[in-house]
Structure formats: C-alpha cells, structure tokens
Amino acid sequence: MTLTDTFFVLLLLIAMNAFLALAELSIASAKRIKLMQIRDSGEPDAAGAAVVLYLKDNPNGFLGIVQIGLNVVAILAGVFGEAAFSIRIADALASWGMATGWWRDTLSFTLAVGAITAIFLLFGDLLPKRIAIHAPERIACALAPVLRALQKPFTPILWLFGKLVDAILTFFNIRAQGEAAITTDDVYAMVAAGAEAGAVDRDAHHLIQNVLRLGEKAITSAMTPRQNIVSIDVDDDEETIKTVLAEEPKARFVVTGGDIDHPIGYIDASDLLAKAINNQSLRLHRDTLKAWGMKPILMVPDSITVLDGLDQFRSAGEDIALVANEYGVIVGLLTMNDVMAAIMGRIVEEVAREKSIVKMKDSEGAWLIDGMADINDVKELFGWDNLPMEENYQTISGFLMSLLKKWPRKADSVVWQGVKFVVVDTEGSRIDQVMATVEQSMKDKKASF
C-alpha cells in the first residue's frame, strides 16, 4: 500500500472515530426535556429527536454499536498506521546515520504509535467531543438516525451483550437505564444557572425559587404573629371600634368574644365603614352579627406549610384564616396577602428587611436587628447555611431563645460562629432589638480569604 493510500485510510478511520465520539457524547448529553420540546414542535429535527429519545431509553444498543465501531477503528488504525509509518520512520533514522538495531526499531515504533495516537486523540476524540458539548441536542438529532441504522444489522449480538450488562447491573443493584427523576434541587440549579447567565431576571429567579419552596415553608413563617393581629371584640364600645378603624386600616377584622383565643368570625371593613357613613351605631351584638355581614373564620393548624394553607383557602373558598397550635391557642393570622408576600419574597420585602436589619454607621461589622427579623435574612447576612434546631423558630428572637436556653432579658448575650448577639431591649415577653457584632477573630478569618 502506498503512502497516499495509507493517509486516505487513516483519514477515513479518523472520520469514523470522530462520528462515533460525536454521536455518543451528544446523545448522552442531550437533555430529555429539550428533546421532547423539539419532538413536539414539528421542526425538521422532530423525527431525529424521537430517535434520540428511543436510544436514551435503550442505551445498550447505541452504546454497543459505538464501542464496536471504536474498537474496530482502533485495531485498523494500528494495523495500517503502525506498519506504514514505523518502516518509513526507521528508514529516515537510518538515512540520518542511525545504525540498525533493536533500539532503532523501538524508537521508530514509539514515534509511529505516538503520532497516530496524537492525531486520533485530537481530531477523532477531543475536537468532536467539544463540538458535541456545545450543542448536544441538535447534533444528536442529526446523527441519531444514522447510528440507529448502523445498529440494526448488529441487533442480535447487541441484544446478547445488553442482556449480559443488565444482568451484571442487576446483580450489583445498579439502575440499568433511564435518567434520574428531576428533583426540586435540579430545578433550583437550572434557574440559578439561568440567572447567572442572564437568561432569567434576578427578581424572576427569586420568584420561581419562592414558589417552589411553598411546600417547605412553615405557615408560621408567613403569618401575621398573634401580637400583631388587629381584632374587634363584641363588647367593644363604639369609640373603641372607631379608633381601631382609624388607626388600623385593614380590609377585614377578626371578631372575638372576649380575647383572640375565642374567635367568632371576621367582618369586612367596608361593612363597618358603610355603617359609619350612614351614621349608624358600630356596636356589635352577638344576635345581629350575621346581619352585619360577619362570616365564620377558617382555622388551620400551625404545623402545616404555606402550600397546605393555600390548599385550605382553595377548598374553603376563603382567603383569611387563624392559625392555632395543638393546644388551641391562636398563634397568628394568615391571609392571601401573606401567601403572596411569601411568594414574592425579597421583591416586596426589601424595604421591610432594610428596616429590620440596620447596619451601624459608627461601627464596622455591627448591626441593630429587630427582634421579629426573619431568621433566613439573618442567615444570609452572616453567610450561615444551618442553625441549631431551626425548625423550631422563624425569627432571630426564637434563635436567641434557643441559644440562651432561658427567657431573654436586657443585656443578655451569646456568641454563635464568631457573631456576638446582645439583647438591647425587650417589649413585654419578647425581644425587641438585638445588637449583632462580628468578633475580630471572624473578621480576620474573612480577610484571609
């Protein structure tokens, strides 16, 4: 065989190797969701996408034909390449004055094998695989029908090897085929990657994450806490009710029979305002509450998630509910606005967060934090991933109570992961303000990175 013929055969083998490497990696890397979209779109690649999906569902066949092809190419490359080039390299070495001997044969063989390997590695493997990674779905759709056609003549032997592979995988309890189900974390990662690449807006990124987390977010983290519930008692006089209407502009008010732990229902502010405009008495009477437009209020347990609360709203046809603990004590109030705030997250709570966590101007690494500040905001502020027993509290007050292991008093302090927390003020039985200061050792550690 002449040198020209040898080069032609090697070029053909390199092309075959490149095709197989390109097809294998593009099919393996192609995302199932994108392939389904292409298949259902009616595009020219739709038929190819269907073939790719078939090959991904039956990987033994296409992996088998690829490996058969790669091994055949490697054997032929060695047969043609080494024999043709090692002799010519030996002749060239001899012309340069190198004497005949085993070391000249060894050197010529090594150079021939190295050159062929380098050429195949570059043009038959690395370059095609880089191209496959760039656009796996489109390339897979183009090459899959050809690979499927090559696979058909070898169906019996591929079936046999496939059964052997399945038996071995079953023996070792390894999933033989298919893709793992997409989890919520996978969706988080895809959305985060889209936001980082600029394909997803920053606010849209947070919005999608918050929607997905509704099933994990405790209802107590979204509700209005007990001490902030505005209610009207059936025994309140008219002046008290007018004061509530003037100072607490709410859309609806909880109606109680003595205290918040004895709710009767809720009434729309519009009904009360209509009475006031018509100069009618605002006094509530138990026997006329229904005539006033009072409605029964939904009760939900504090152990459910925000998503469960949304389901309760849908089932009951309501958008307001009182949240009670296992002892029947009212711990908060949930409305549809609270659910929307949980979904919108940082978009609507940015101002509230800035008010609840204020950086001290005169001291570096110090913050004045409202006792009702969301613990997730505090975690993000200090870069913490997990806190001890964090499922038991939603605010920094609960976090400090968990660390102090006692009822907090003014000037109580505790240190957690290089941050010192000092109770600045209390209001009744709760923490009102907290001073958080990053200790010098923590500052030095951050500065070293």
What do you see in this structure?
With 449 residues, the protein is α+β, with helices and mostly antiparallel strands. It contains 17 helices and twelve strands. It has a five-stranded antiparallel β-sheet with strand order 8-9-12-11-10. The protein has a four-stranded mixed β-sheet with strand order 1-7-6-5. The chain has a three-stranded mixed β-sheet with strand order 2-3-4. Helix 2 packs antiparallel against helix 3 (46-57). The chain starts with a helix and ends with a helix. Mean pLDDT is 82; it is low at 346-354.
Structural class: alpha+beta
Q: What Rg do the Cα atoms give?
A: 36 Å
Give unreliable regions as ranges: 346-354
Cα distance spanning the termini: 63 Å
Kindly state the percentage of residues in helix: 55-70%
Task: Give the topology.
Blueprint: H1 3-29, H2 32-41, H3 46-57, H4 59-95, H5 102-134, H6 136-151, H7 155-171, H8 184-197, H9 202-212, E1 224-225, E2 231-233, H10 238-247, E3 252-256, E4 263-268, H11 269-277, E5 298-301, H12 306-316, E6 320-324, E7 330-335, H13 336-344, H14 346-356, E8 357-359, E9 366-370, H15 375-382, H16 396-404, E10 413-416, E11 419-427, E12 430-438, H17 440-447
Parallel strand pairs: 2-3, 5-6
Antiparallel strand pairs: 1-7, 3-4, 6-7, 8-9, 9-12, 10-11, 11-12
Helix pairs in contact: 1-4, 1-5, 1-6, 2-3, 3-4, 3-6, 4-5, 4-6, 4-7, 8-9
